[in-house]
User: What shape does this take?
Amino acid sequence: MQDALAIVVLILSATLRVATPLILGALAGLFSERSGIIDIGLEGKMLASAFAAATVAALSNSAWIALAAGIAVAGLFALVHGYACITQRGNQVVSGIALNMLAAGLTVVLGNAWFHRGGQTPTLSAEARFMPSDMPGAAAVHDLPVLGPLYEGLIGGHNLIVYAALAAVPLTHWVVGRTRFGLRLRAVGENPQAVDTAGISVAWLRYRAVLLCGLLTGIAGTYLAIAQNAGFSRDMTAGQGYIALAALIFGKWRPYGALGASLMFGLLDAIAIRLQGVRVVGVGEVPVQLIQALPYLLTVILLAGFIGKADAPKAAGTPYGKER
Amino acid sequence: MRGARAPLPHWVDVGLIPLANVASALLIAGVIVLAIGENPLSAVGVLLAGALGDSEGIGYTLYYATNFVFTGLAVAVAFHAGLFNIGGEGQATLGGLGVGLVLLAGDGHLPFAALLPLALLAATGFGAAWALVPAWLQAYRGSHIVITTIMFNFLAAALMVYLMVNVLIAPGSMSPESREFGPAAYLPQMHEVLVPLGVKLTATPLNLSVALAAALCVFVWLLLWHTPFGFELRTAGHSAAAAVYAGVRPRRVVMISMCLSGAIAGCVGLNEIMGVHHRLLLNFTAGYGFAGIAVALMGRNHPVGIVLAGLLFGILSQGGTELAFAMPAITRDMIVVIQGLVILFSGALPQLSRPGFEWLFAVLSRRAPALWNA
Assistant: This one.
């Protein structure tokens, strides 16, 4: 019983840690796509900000300055994406791919040139990272059955960004669903002509949405480099930006839906890691790759309309011009 | 006010603006090299010497270019049908898997003359099959092909890792690689092929696939611009709604064009698995599928342009390898940076330089109207 509880707590807290960048990435994509700008460049922005955060953390030894750098670089990438998609009215998918490749190449080229470690950044010390912190009173409840381990291991014991990501979900829900900005944001993603007719700038709204996307991917990348890991390594996002995109779609472009999908994908990953090389009675060795491929598979099935219906914002992908 | 555009001569639109886009990309790459602390001009020198300086360099350049042409053509065929296939990476992976399975099964029993058509069939068939599912989902279930092809890239990668680690790994091997094929299953390399003709080349990975790539360029050109189906495909790509009135069935076009696209991308597997590695292994696609987007955009989705763009990227790949030796500060990843920049400027910001050219030509036509109107 005690062991089972310990394993459950371990798996669930691992789920939270894995899901954090997915939640942030999915919310980032939510702002962008609800405004009508498709963003398949979440991966690239996360990777670029991870590199920036790790580099600045190594130089400044401060996690907060590193966070600022990560956000700044992701914001810069977001601005380029915005300029291409909003001002130049270019192809949004193409721009996203371009920025992903740029990030993949540039982080290794610059990392290798600056640190001479084949694209890795130096290993960071504890003060240059966001470290897990104990919940207040964790020692007091330590000996309580069930509640003790839950409080200490699941609710507590994470770093700041994990809680920030969880807090970002209701915040996004409120901003998108209840504020004037959010209403206009959703309107511009569905019918930009109407918004324009009402005398509101489509471009300025979309630029703000894209910048929010940069902010959140910046936090996600920073988390990967200096909270979850102690430095940057090449291609360290390893598709998490795309899984975040899948979570956004799976959550039907809604904050709580995205949270649920991120947690589910995180749980799958945590279980996959746990099951590596383990023989399950009756099944034999579970193919870990299958579990890891499930987020992609489920998203394909959902998009095909086999489980519910996922409708993208109507204007997503089409550049807006007044003269149409 | 945007939109009211002065007409520019055709050759500026097709020639000068695309060149300016590539030049912008290379210029920024040069600035990055400068920022690293190396001289971009001497880097270009090393790069060109490494890629074109001797027959070995040229052989490698053409070998890389072969893959770029395959994936570039694949992207272009889908693009003309109005579809954005970013699943080239996965389709190439499956193509290689097909080649590997055929050769692992048949290399002991069948002669080369039987293995080659079977391998070609497997490369194109597996690639097409992997594109067929996203195509079907797009045509009949309304899922967005961009998202499904992205997901299928990851699914292909997961499938491949599973098969290599658990099923196809050679007994006793530490790395996830299959056993080596028998010599009957080697695609002849060009330095062997040309010996009877009296041509002596340095040994390079360049193999018969390069001929296949050339043939496919002609095939795609004929198909798209000189057959009724090519006309249907391009019509559907321009406007699916209008195509319906012209008697085109858009769903059929989606299915066939994606299968063609996947089949062409699958040929990367033939080049890599049968031509070079002679065994099945992981990550042999090495980003060619994504690079194909850059190749297609730069080549303006035309076979001639794709060959030129493929050669440029071949030069960058081979020259980049030499450059990494000569200037260790610049790694081969610089090529990915350049690919990204080319996609950004040619694909996402194609009209960036247009106002500049419009201004230039407005000034020119005022200063020298006679010259201009001639």
Observations:
- The radius of gyration of chain A is 20 Å.
- Chain A touches chain B through 48 residues (CB under 8 Å).
- Chain A has a mean pLDDT of 89.
